[in-house]
Amino acid sequence: MEQKLEEMSAFFNARSATYDVVHTNGIDGGLESKKIPGEFLPEHCENLLDLGIGTGLELETVFRRFPEICVTGVDCSSEMLALLRKKYPDRNLELHQMSYFDYDFGTRRFDAAMTVMTLHHYTHAVKTELYRRILTALRPGGVYVECDFMIPPGEVPDPQAVEDSLFAEYARLKREQGLSDREEYHFDTPCTEENQIKMLRAAGFINVREVWRKGSTVVLVAEKPKGTSQ
Ligand SMILES: C[S@@+](CC[C@H](N)C(=O)[O-])C[C@H]1O[C@@H](n2cnc3c(N)ncnc32)[C@H](O)[C@@H]1O
After folding, report:
1. Cα–Cα distance measured from residue 17 to residue 27, given in angstroms and rounded to the nearest whole number
2. If you measure from the C-alpha of residue 227 to the centroid of ligand 1, how many angstroms do you get, rounded to a whole number?
3. Residue 145's pLDDT band (boundaries 50, 70, 90)?
4. Are 205 and 112 in contact (CB under 8 A)?
5. Segments forming the whole domain that contains residue 126
6. CATH code assigned at 187
């Protein structure tokens, strides 16, 4: 049966109650993958921006390493954020229920930023622009960690062809279901790992590198240059 596209926040609101178990069982690397991003935050990290924070599965390592850290989390799903608040009532969390495309990240506010399993729904142009805004939001020398569903080299014979076919399928479904380009819908369009690295470099990040991978779950780390006027 043809997939009926659901608006992004409605999709996650409807699945929030079972999300932690169903999601971690369904991804390569499982729960282990959530423990990795926090290990790559810089020493003395005081302010973290977490986009698509959801129920905060990635925060266990973060709070173990930095119990006093202030985490600014942005997510469009009210139900996912409600579960996160229940999980960590005593932590320093500043949560915003909205699209991260509409949130003003500010300038040089954060020591680090992370996105975990949230950006595989968006195009190159949209992600590159978001990466530019993340770069601006980081202090010089700040670190961005992305853990996501990607198409790594060697997993399939032609990673670019897989990426292209997923974007084409998403466009077809949207067209046939009469859906607007202004809304965000849940459909997986992972990019090749090579393209991910290119986008981060195009946005101005340096030392972009893979630090962990299990199947199609990849962790990339990127840095904001120290001597920058941005
Ligand atoms: C697969 S969950 C990941 C949650 C958490 N980071 C984790 O790894 O368990 C994706 C999350 O991204 C959020 N999301 C997707 N697109 C978003 C957007 N444009 N703005 C804000 N949140 C978004 C969804 O609501 C959902 O909570």
Report:
1. 18
2. 32
3. very high
4. no
5. 8-223
6. 3.40.50.150
